[in-house]
Amino acid sequence: MAIRTTISSLVSPALLFLILLSASADYSNSSATAAEAADGGIGPCFTSLFSFGDSVSDTGNQMLLGKCPHCCSLPNGETYFGRPTGRCCNGRLIVDFIAEKLGLPLLTPFPGELKSSNFRFGANLAEGGATALDFRFLAERGIFNTHTNVSLGDELKRFRNLLPTLCFSPSGI
After folding, report:
1. Which of 4, 15, 80, 143 counts the highest number of beta carbons within 10 A?
2. In this predicted model, what pLDDT tens digit does every residue of 129-158 receive, in sequence order?
3. What does each C-alpha distance from 73 to 1, 58, 79, 96, 109 come to in angstroms?
4. Closest CA relative to residue 127, chosen from 145, 109, 104
5. Which pTM was predicted?
6. How many helices (H) and strands (E) does the chain have?
7. pLDDT at position 92, please?
8. How far apart are CA 91 and CA 72, in angstroms?
9. Higher pLDDT residue, 77 or 157?
10. How many Å apart are CA 163 and CA 119, to the nearest integer?
């Protein structure tokens, strides 16, 4: 007899938070000012930021995919943005503060479709409810996520599809 378990009883969503920083390799020519250094700013050595994870770092992918009844209404977003943005909080997320500290714009959600957005400074590939393990792997063990079937592997596939628009090599690597 298979035991039916839900994801939320096994893993805290915060454990799924993963950020990948894409850094320029040119630290010798950094133009960080003394004021930035005194302020604790990191300076201009990071050129882009890519975020993977679940609702702890989703900046609007669920909203763009039409999957977020609770994140798409107030009070979500009201304290900073003045409107719902798809973030599952009433203000900014940790990834928003990281982008700000790096001197980068807030991350544009990337649900997998290339539209007119510019991802030169990075993208947010996180989706609320995402798991670290693949849906099939979990289902084979009687573990079901009733919210979504998106995994970190799916987010990495989206990133791989985005790479050719960011890199100059044909393979995108």
Report:
1. 143
2. 889 888 889 889 998 877 777 899 999 999
3. 41, 15, 13, 19, 17
4. 109
5. 0.69
6. 5, 5
7. 92
8. 13
9. 157
10. 10
Radius of gyration of the chain (CA): 18
Other beta carbons less than 10 A from residue 153's beta carbon: 14
Selection from 103, 133, 138, 145 nearest residue 121 by Cα? 103
Residue of higher predicted confidence among 71 and 60: 60
- Per-residue model confidence (pLDDT) at position 97: 94
* Helix, strand and coil percent figures for the chain, each rounded to 5: 25, 15, 60
Q: Which of 11-20, 68-77, 154-163 has the lowest mean pLDDT?
A: 11-20
Q: Give one DSSP letter per residue of 7-69, joined into a string.
A: GGGT--GGGG-EEEEEE-S--TT----HHHHHHT---TTEEEEEEE-STTT-SSHHHHTT--T
For 7, the token pair is 């994801």
With 80 as the cut, is the pLDDT of residue 68 above it? no
CA angle 1, 137, 150 (to 5 degrees): 125
Distance CA 160, CA 35 (A): 37
